[in-house]
Amino acid sequence: MQAERKNKANLKVIILGEFNVGKTSLIKRYKEGKFDPQEEPTIGASFYLKRWGPHNVAIWDTAGQERFMSLSALYCRGTKAAILAFDISQKDTFNQLEKRFLPLVNSHTEENCLIVIVGCKVDAVLESNRQVHRETAIALARELNPTWKPEKPPPYYETSSITGENVNALFEFIFEYFLPLSESEKNQYNQMNKRTKHSVRDGTVDLQSKSVSTKRKCCSLL
Amino acid sequence: MSIRAFELVPAIETVTQISPAHDKSKSSERGPQLQVQQQIECIESCGKNIFIGTNDGYIIEYSFDEKMLNGRTGYESHQTKHRFLGQKKPVNQLKAASALYRLLVQFDGSVFMLSMFDLEPVTTASKAKATSFCLNENPDSNNPFSVQMCTASKKKQLHLFTVTEDRIMHDHEIQLPDLPVTMAMDGSHICIALTSQYIVINCDTNRLQDLFPYDSETTMPFVKRVAKEEFLLSGPSALGMFASASGISQRPPVHMIDNLASICYSHPYVLAMNEQFITVHSVIDQQQKQIISFNGGRVLGEFDGRIFVASAREVYGVVPVPWEIQIQSLLADKRITEALDLARNSYKTGLTKDRFNKIYETIQQQAGFIEFSQHRFSEAVELFKSGLVDAREVISLYPLLMPRSSNYTRAVPALHDLADIRQITHGNQQQMSEYKQFLADFLEDIRETRRVLACREEVDTALVKLYAEMDTDKLCKLVQNNCKADLSDCTEVLQQHGRYHALALLHRARGDLNSALALWTRMLDGELEGDPLVNIKYMAKILTSVTDQHLMWKYADWLLKKDEKLGVTMFTCQSVDGAELEPAQAPAVLEFLQRYPEALLKYLEYLVFSLRLEKEKYHTHLALLYMNNVQNLMKTNNTEQGLLEDARRRLQTMLQDSSAYRVHILLGKAQELELSAECAILHGKLEEHEQALEILVHRLRDYAAAEQYCSVNARGRSRSYRHKLFYNLLTAYMSQPADGNTETAKALMEAAISLLNSSKAEFDGAEVLRLIPEDWPISLVRQFLVRTVRRSQHECRMKLVEQALAQGARAGAEVATASVMNRSEIVTEDRCCAVCHKPFRDPQFLRYPNGIVSHIHCSNHRHICPVTGKLFKVILPHPRSGSPTKTTSFQSSVTKPQIRES
């Protein structure tokens, strides 16, 4: 970790959101390919480094608890991309985004910061019992990124850290947006990813997550 | 994941005994009942001195010595000076400006300066009103004899001072939004804890950067400089926050203990202290690494690289445990991964790369032995290999594997505390064999690496012994593959396990063929336990490669006695590459083999058929041997007919195929033995075809053989020879049998007719016609006649075609010549020679068919163009004549010039 640290990160991504919406799980799912149902609450903040082709991407995970809110400003500075995460099954977590986290993002991050809205725990809801509608979230995503071209898919993802749905797609979308990779670099990245994932899962292939990583489902409705 | 990263070492035992003299005077002044409990309020260390500020207005100086005892740091200190500041108020802050030899003291609401020599106040310098102060730890100024100081007062402002040896000069002040509590300064940045938030101010530009707010009721603010423009702050929930001057956090926070009393930073650890404990946190992985129990801690600080902690009365040094020791203790706990991780991370701490690698290797080796002792072989192998372990160190763990000659002693200091594998396995046979298998695999793996060169003998010896015991076929491969094993040691083991074949191979690999062969012969003679691989053939193969003549003859005798047929292979299977060459020792071998007829025959066959030597001596010898064979078989009549026929067929084939033998010797012998068929072949060899055919036709009456004979002998001969040969046969058929038997005569005639009509035979028709008796009806020889006429007609027509073709070719050539010869070339005055580029002076010149015109003397060759080098001479096959080629040349023409007047 220390050796990795030496390389200056080319991109800083921060993830913000209410307590217990699954921010840490989301990152761990992406970085390690596994889900820990007993994830400890993050204290303060934690930091992950991910290689993206020749680049280093720093992902900062923040604590959602109210008492750490004051610290978030420190971590928001210098951020080019912010992930605002909420729990699809809890309406309140979505409302809090605008109330608590948006001011943070607006006042501390870099100019033209990409704001990606992420609805977590999509595996836990059905269309019938979800509390935040896709359209509402998409509307917010478009509103927060006023320069976003309407023909492009909105920066909104619904993810599940349990199944891995859309997790890779989300991060790859952000990285690709800032640091586009050449074809060969991408292949390399995919291979590396595959290797680490497989080693973690003892050689079994998670069909579901694989299908997700190849297809971007989130905007299929539009 | 705890590590002993630091340990407490007493530095100053008890501060109560500091100034008995003074205490006495105090007690005499105020009476014993009024004696105040003296406590440490703040400390500062500079060089070899520790300054202590007490709660009752004393500054006491101790000097200490750092001593290394058993690899551990210890402090010895004694009090040197002290000063009473005049009021029994606490000394809040002490800072040394070592370059100025001054001590800055915050006492009684102001900051002033003391000399370090005698702790006397510097009277030339004014006091500054301040509640707290800090020095710039990374000053911008170039003057080493001045210090930047920043003070906080009871107003919402900071004051900046420049402190020199004798002055404290006010530079400017900075307005703040709130009252300052504590601060740290780095360059032009000051990080300040206000009453409810942290900020950073740039004192040059006065730009204010908010960091984060804190709750002053639950959080005690701390500001420590960590690195350039980076500060460690205490945040909510006892978080240690890192913040840079630009308001960004570049490291994740560390979670410290509650009720913080003090914090300090010493890379890569953050130390935090409360009433009961000092905790150590790594900034690498944000984990708590160590808890040191320490009651009543009041001050914790890092001073010039040393960390001191003070309780009310004592001062302790917090000494970092050298990382080697940390690793050793991890290894002692068998926490290998952590030890290796720590080792890798400690590389930063100022070691050269080489030295670090050395240490790291040792650690890997130690770790390897731990894995080894716990049966985790694959991990052990990895560690042994990457730690470049000395193979002998591993071998020495196995009893009886080291060669006796080896004087290897285990590494000092010991890499492990293992006696041998018997100790590890507690004598469990199953485990023992697993360990042995491990060693075998490991040694096999590293055997070829360059590192092992120095201890190759030990490695190979150990391997030989292991394989001998394990009974694997790798043993034989090993001993032949550049094995450096100790011979005497291995001999014993191999004999003990009955691996004589391997022993012999080892001898051979060492160049001691004599011992090797002796062993093998003993194995084959049944004296020693044999090996399925070792048989006569194998021995022959071995002997083939023997270059020592003496040895070869010695064992050749033994081998031939054992088995002639196989034994002879030692002579015959050699030198496959130089097969065409006659073996130099062939005469000697033949001489030697006289006693072994069967072997001799085989050897001659080898010389004649396999090597295809065309030496008369061998061929004759072989033919004679074949003939003797036949003779012997004929003598003993009771032998099977098949055997005799077989022998004769072999003789005949040999006589027919070979032509290197001396025919007359064999012919004489064949006639003597009345071997008619052989005689016929021999006559044929002498080109005495009449005699041969005579024998075949009249004596053997084997007409098929006679015709076969003709076609064999006719092969590749000229037409007239072929005619003559078949004519001879016909004559033989036509001549009357000697006994006048009509049956035979009839058979002969039939044979003659069928020969005439057969398509295989070739005759000169005219001659044959003369031979055919008058009384034969035409119908008998019709076929022959028709074919003869047809053939001669065909030949005649072919000739005509050839003639016409040749004429055509000739005409074409003539036309070409004529057209070349008739071309004219006009040479004017300005025309130059293509070779020398000079004008033509002579009336004669050369012109080549490609238009190149040159002087005659400029051309070297009539047929080769001097400019392009083209050859104007074509070699054409001539259709008519028997000679294969005829040259047609397009000669360059020598032309009379036609000089045209211009």
From TrEMBL, chain A:
Statement: the UniProt record of this protein carries the keyword Ribosomal protein: no
Entry keyword set: Nucleotide-binding
UniProt key word Methyltransferase: no
Database matches in InterPro entries: P-loop_NTPase, Small_GTP-bd, Small_GTPase
Pfam families: Ras
UniProt cross-references to Gene3D superfamilies, sorted A to Z: P-loop containing nucleotide triphosphate hydrolases (3.40.50.300)
Family to which the UniProt record says this protein belongs: Belongs to the small GTPase superfamily. Rab family.
Descriptive protein name: Ras-related protein Rab-20-like isoform X1
Taxonomic lineage of the native organism: Eukaryota, Metazoa, Ecdysozoa, Scalidophora, Priapulida
Name of the gene encoding the protein in the UniProt record: LOC106809818
From TrEMBL, chain B:
InterPro entries linked: Clathrin_H-chain/VPS_repeat (IPR000547), CNH_dom (IPR001180), Vam6/VPS39/TRAP1 (IPR032914), VPS39/TGF_beta_rcpt-assoc_1 (IPR019452), VPS39/TGFA1_Znf (IPR019453), WD40_repeat_dom_sf (IPR036322)
Ranges for region Disordered: 878-902
Organism: Priapulus caudatus (Priapulid worm)
Designated name of the protein: Transforming growth factor-beta receptor-associated protein 1-like isoform X1
Keyword Glycoprotein included in the entry's annotation: no
Signal peptide (UniProt feature, chain positions): none
Subcellular location: Cytoplasm; Lysosome
Xref: PROSITE patterns: CHCR, CNH
Domain CNH residue range list: 37-307
